[in-house]
């Protein structure tokens, strides 16, 4: 089996995150050889500086956490993050446009970001807690059709995080596509992490990466 640590995007996205906390996040990622650290775009330069001589990638969120920013704003934030050293981008789908049935606008939003990063990994966050089953399938299809390399469950700031049911719907949607699934939100312990991996997810977003790989699940952090 692929080592558990290589599935983890070690995450710190809370609004009060300090520079020292980001440094600690990066140190933990180096120690445990996580796949990446996932940070807000303002911290991409700091994370890249610390991780530049390692295999740990830097992931930046874009349009976070609401997804309601203009497409132009998302594109510029993504450009800036990539310029500063981000390897991957996790962008939030425009949930309001989606709920309005304006699928053309949702598609344009995703495609516009992917067009400026054809060689970098783009993960599209669906925020599944706000979607019913049919909407999860439709959102997955839109993201896949417009350049997503991953579809991702959650920001960790919504009404709920990843669920087995939602992830199964997303995994079913990527069949016959070279697209992967990232589960995030509420993954706090080793057992839960393995459950999602065994289902077929390729990445886990969590602030509890150290506890998950060490089996110390008594000192968990936030829901993300």
From TrEMBL:
Molecular-function GO term, any one: deoxyribose-phosphate aldolase activity
Q: Which domain of life is it from?
A: Bacteria
* Alphabetical UniProt keywords: Cytoplasm, Lyase, Schiff base
Annotated catalysed reactions: 2-deoxy-D-ribose 5-phosphate = D-glyceraldehyde 3-phosphate + acetaldehyde
Q: Which CDD domains match?
A: DeoC
> Has UniProt tagged this entry with the keyword Iron?
no
Subcellular compartments? Cytoplasm
Q: Which Gene3D superfamilies match?
A: Aldolase class I (3.20.20.70)
For this entry, list what GO says about its biological process.
2-deoxyribose 1-phosphate catabolic process; carbohydrate catabolic process; deoxyribonucleotide catabolic process
Which coarse location class describes where this protein primarily resides?
cytoplasm
Pathway, according to UniProt?
A: Carbohydrate degradation; 2-deoxy-D-ribose 1-phosphate degradation; D-glyceraldehyde 3-phosphate and acetaldehyde from 2-deoxy-alpha-D-ribose 1-phosphate: step 2/2
Keyword presence, Chaperone: no
InterPro entries from the UniProt entry: Aldolase_TIM (IPR013785), DeoC (IPR011343), DeoC/FbaB/LacD_aldolase (IPR002915), DeoC_typeI (IPR028581)
Which positions are catalytic residues?
90 (proton donor/acceptor), 152 (schiff-base intermediate with acetaldehyde), 182 (proton donor/acceptor)
Function recorded in the entry: Catalyzes a reversible aldol reaction between acetaldehyde and D-glyceraldehyde 3-phosphate to generate 2-deoxy-D-ribose 5-phosphate.
Instruction: Tell me which family the UniProt entry assigns to this protein.
Output: Belongs to the DeoC/FbaB aldolase family. DeoC type 1 subfamily.
Protein's recorded name: Deoxyribose-phosphate aldolase
Q: What organism does the UniProt record list as the source?
A: Bizionia paragorgiae
